[in-house]
Design a protein that fits this description.
Length: 505
């Protein structure tokens, strides 16, 4: 094998009960390159990277992984062994301990000690050194559970970079990041490339491959479709490799006709832990409308919808008006009683019970509709859950498998399914296509159009301005905890949205 090849996957096959996740996968990764991997959800990308990083040790798959000219045999303590070999991974799903600080998470299991005691000053000093080196906007003493998803992702990145990685795997690293943070990540990757670090970059955002990667490997249904230099590809060609067909449009055209105002938020202020989170938010929402909410990370978008849903901050001023009458929402149960459902930003923390089955996750918020005298009508539960699962094309061998065994995109579909089954009047979707492939995104977009055409009012938060512009009827822009204006889609542009998001306009 050539010295410039650091990784050589040879006929790798991995099966689970009822599913072949990888089938005869073979391709090479050059030393010091940024190698992109793309494919629809369930294509096998994350499974392959879990083999490389030791989550699935040697002997649990067929084929070989050649690393630096020798077969990689990660066995007992496989994850730690991979780290010792210089292989680090930043997962799509966060793996942080919520009650610990940023510094504690970064050095978890390898804390600096002296005479059996942890050297806290050294731990936090080294944490600050890492954060400063890569210009990561997180503080060493911040507690993880108090951070937004974007800053948690930055902490995951810092944790991987702290291990002196020779191969750095990034699984959907920008899914929760705003544009400024993505620019920062690009700079970090280019710096790592100059230092000779090899990066494997997994993403569902087509533009990122052309901006970041040198080579792209496409997987479809567990098999390699192609490996090509990025410069030889186009977006259209890449999408056709991924889905096996051409896609003429990215955002499907709906036939929406927004009606009367159904919901109003009037000068909303809210506090959490004695800190003002929302500082004056006002907007209205119409029947059959998709209202996009844009803003930079930290602008208060997620905090706003979580507060409306009754599960974040305490409202101190302002009003929520539904159907012409003021309502009080104390918790998620009262939100549901008022016909408001929320697809949360972080499906792992707030959207799913990972150890439970697909069936139980879909039916959990809807048990009232299946309740009979002293029992649940299990037949109705299965029939309705199966119907909604088919509508959303959830890829699962059965409704009875644990939801944690599904790919990230299919987990997201389960979250959407359970809230659609509740029959909402208002559906809030916080980054609904985060970690979802281009084909599944299109399905979700079509579903959003269909729901809006049925009269359901949709609030959609998105970190992707193209998505906001492609799917919204109007766009409300958040800036530092307040609403800084609403644009009709005919007048909205990326430049106008960014001007409002940064407070320039």
């Amino acid at each position: 094998m050539s010295d410039d090849i650091i990784l050589d996957f040879q006929n790798v096959t991995k099966t689970f009960p009822g599913v072949t996740a990888l089938s005869d996968v073979s391709f090479q990764v050059r030393r010091g390159e940024i190698h992109g991997m793309c494919g629809e959800n369930g294509a096998g990308k994350s499974t392959l990277m879990k083999i490389l990083s030791g989550v699935y040790p040697h002997g649990t798959y067929e084929g070989k992984v050649i690393y630096n000219g020798q077969e990689l045999k990660l066995e007992t303590s496989a994850i730690h062994q991979a780290a010792e070999e210089g292989i680090a991974i930043v997962y799509q799903e966060l793996t942080l301990v919520p009650a610990m600080t940023v510094g504690e998470n970064i050095f978890l299991g390898r804390e600096p000690t002296e005479r059996g005691a942890i050297m806290w000053d050294k731990l936090y000093a080294e944490t600050q050194s890492i954060l400063s080196k890569y210009h990561l906007d997180v503080r060493p003493h911040d507690v993880i559970q108090n951070l937004g998803v974007g800053k948690m992702q930055m902490t995951e990145l810092a944790k991987a970079l702290s291990e002196d990685a020779k191969v750095l795997i990034l699984d959907e690293p920008t899914s929760a990041l705003a544009e400024a943070e993505i620019d920062q990540l690009v700079e970090i990757l280019h710096t790592l490339k100059e230092l000779g670090v090899t990066c494997i970059y997994i993403s569902h955002k087509m533009e990122e491959f052309f901006r970041i990667t040198d080579t792209v490997t496409v997987l479809r249904d567990g098999k390699v479709v192609t490996t090509q230099p990025t410069k030889d590809l186009t977006s259209e060609k890449l999408v056709s490799y991924m889905v096996g067909r051409e896609m003429k449009e990215r955002f499907p055209k709906g036939n929406r006709h927004p009606g009367k105002v159904i919901f109003e938020v009037k000068d909303l202020h809210a506090d959490k832990a004695d800190r003002e989170i929302l500082k004056g938010v006002s907007f209205d929402l119409r029947e059959g409308e998709i209202l996009g909410i844009a803003g930079l990370m930290g602008s208060g978008r997620t905090e706003l919808v979580m507060t409306i849903f009754g599960e974040f901050a305490k409202i101190t001023q302002g009003a929520l008006v539904l159907g012409g009458r003021e309502i009080k929402i104390a918790n998620s149960h009262s939100a549901m009683e008022n016909g408001i459902s929320l697809v949360p930003e972080d499906r792992k923390r707030h959207g799913l019970v990972l150890m439970q089955s697909v069936l139980k996750n879909i039916s959990l918020p809807n048990l009232d509709r299946f309740a009979g005298f002293l029992r649940i009508d299990q037949n109705a539960e299965v029939v309705e859950s199966l119907r909604i699962a088919k509508e959303l094309a959830i890829k699962t061998p059965s409704l009875h498998v644990p939801v944690e065994t599904l790919s990230g995109g299919n987990q997201q579909k389960v979250v959407i399914a359970k809230w659609l089954l509740s029959g909402p009047k208002i559906l809030i979707m916080d980054d609904p296509t985060r970690g979802v492939d281009v084909g599944a995104k299109y399905e979700i977009y079509k579903l959003m159009n269909e729901l809006a055409e049925q009269g359901i009012a949709i609030i959609m938060i998105s970190s992707e301005l193209e998505e906001v512009l492609g799917m919204s009827d109007r766009v409300m822009v958040m800036c530092q905890g307040y609403s800084n204006g609403t644009l009709n889609i005919a007048e909205a542009t990326q430049e106008k949205i960014m001007a409002l998001a940064t407070g320039i306009a």
